[in-house]
Design a protein that fits this description.
- With about 625 residues, the chain is an alpha/beta fold.
- Among the domains are: about 140 residues, Rossmann fold (3-Layer(aba) Sandwich); about 120 residues, 2-Layer Sandwich (GMP Synthetase, Chain A, domain 3), CATH 3.30.300.
- It is about 30% helix and about 25% strand.
- The chain contains 19 helices and 31 strands.
- It has an 8-stranded mixed beta sheet with strand order 12-11-8-6-7-14-15-24, with helices on both faces. A 7-stranded mixed beta sheet has the order 5-4-17-16-18-19-20, with helices on both faces. A 5-stranded antiparallel beta sheet has the order 22-21-23-25-26.
- α1 crosses α2 and α4 crosses α5.
- Bound molecules: 5'-O-[(S)-ethoxy(hydroxy)phosphoryl]adenosine (WTA).
Amino acid sequence: MTNFQVKTYDEYQQAYKRSIEDPEGFWSEIASTFTWRKKWNTTLEWNFEEPNVKWFKGGKLNITENCLDRHLKTRGNKLALIWEPNDPKERFVRYTYRELHEKVCQFANVLKKNGAKKGDRICIYMPMIPELAFAVLACARIGAIHSVVFAGFSAVSMADRINDAQCSMVLTSDGLNRGTKQIPVKRVVDEALESCSSVEKVIVVERLGWAVNMEEGRDVWYHDEVKDVSKDCPAEEMDAEDMLFILYTSGSTGKPKGVVHTCGGYMVYAQYSFSNVFQYEESDIYWCTADIGWITGHTYLLYGPLLSGATTLLFEGVPTYPDMGRFWQVCDKFGVTIFYTAPTAIRSLMGGDIDDVLSYSLDSLKVLGSVGEPINEEAWHWYHTHVGKERCPVVDTWWQTETGGIMISSLANVTPIKPAHAAFPLPGIQPILVDSEGKEITDNEVEGYLCMKFPWPGMIRTTYGDHERCRLSYFSTYKGLYFTGDGAKRDQNGLYRIIGRVDDVINVSGHRFGTAEIEEAINHNVHVIESAVVGYPHDVKGQGIYAFVICKDRPENDEWLRAEIIETVVEKIGKIAKPDKIQIVSGLPKTRSGKIMRRILRKVAEGDVSNLGDTSTLLDPAVVDEIVEGSLSKAKV
Ligand code: WTA
């Protein structure tokens, strides 16, 4: 589907201009290319004060009819989904659009049979297997709101998310494969559900063939349930502004919040951005390596490609198993043409033997993408040279869970590309840079806080169950603007370069954590009195987690204490949030009003202790000397 795909720089400029002058006309023409049960009455209603943003109000649709049903006539026998398992020796599986349609309908009927209905919230905690894709789409088919929780989060994190959304059902598996490891997923669900009273049913997909605890009346096997259900399931009619999904993400304060996306606008933006950024063509084999548990997996593994009628690849494994050439082997195996991954994966593979890349042809590749964190120039060049053979454009795509889709990015072979620069906004996207007073910086060769001044169809509508939190988090810092939390530069030609977060969010291997969230987890440890967490530059992960911790009784040997603290974080959040360094300290640098001066801690964490700035306003300046000394000694993990 190449509708509204801009093909030249000139066309991009025209589309951009039009999208600013007449956003409603622009988006409504694009939206008209989709299948609607009923056309919308109003294209856009908005204010950024409350905020209240409604796209395609009054329109009726079901996103899965657009992902599946509408392709059946022309693409019924085209491959929709290719699944490559963790172990290359296990056979891959392919589904045509017709087969995927059937699988989704069957899963939807299993959901209905077990009591799920429109508006229910359903938590999905599953490995990267085809049933995860079926499950997500099945929820959308019946109008249930999916809340996918990445299967690396702990039971406590899952329980928090289930309780926040009051989910009535959990979809999971017996276990999962990750490289050489097998992980007992169902056991984590059982533990989580000890503190979740809203969940009535758990549907378990068999992956490993493990015997698992099945609670009578609550837990059922998917393979039993699916036996006698129909292969057809009419799609529920949804309002454009009905919720499609909730996805939890971390901010600078409190617990992760449930970012809400709605059916109509998200659909239009997912497809439009997918088609334009990657310059998707009908014969492409597209591979996004992100887990469906993150927004990238939602928008660019599932919805965007399927809405476009593309063939999308779902990979269960990791880049380094059975060896460092796994990604490239899979590209060759299926003739992948568009490849989309994260800088952290590239950096970890750069560390390996160059022959791990060079021994694959990678001839099929046309376009490469990067997402999740700033891509440093070294990684960009390695990716461009060794993977793309200097033939494939590398698009650096900047966006967020809250934006629903890619916002600032080069369009492959269409708009200018500059290493480590996200470059230009997509048509319809109006970024601005502001100074700390919120005043717009209009020149080029500047740096500022990145905001959006106009709504786009894929944007966040609310944070689940707490609209005020949405307002405070994104719309209150700068009046009348959506604030991204990122700082950015604009070069002399107007190309954007994203610098990174300016709030207390750290980005570890492309995963977002609030420093407060990690501190709260650490503080649960019985030995801990107080802690302060900051990010620091890390060669592979982008940012590492550095924790300064005050303990009650400091033992002779700090090692076991650190191990205990790590254990607590793994239990409360998950392995992905493990601190890289823990420094036990006797005090933290605080101002007289009790505020921790993170600026100083950040410098210490970065190893830049030569100029710590003015410490005279601290309650106890001596504490800084001790921290610096500790950081320079071996007293770290
Ligand atoms: C960062 C992931 C630089 C940024 C899609 C943003 C990036 C946060 C890029 C959102 C990029 C994402 N260049 N930084 N191309 N892409 N980020 O919600 O700080 O997991 O605010 O969404 O990741 O992370 P999230």
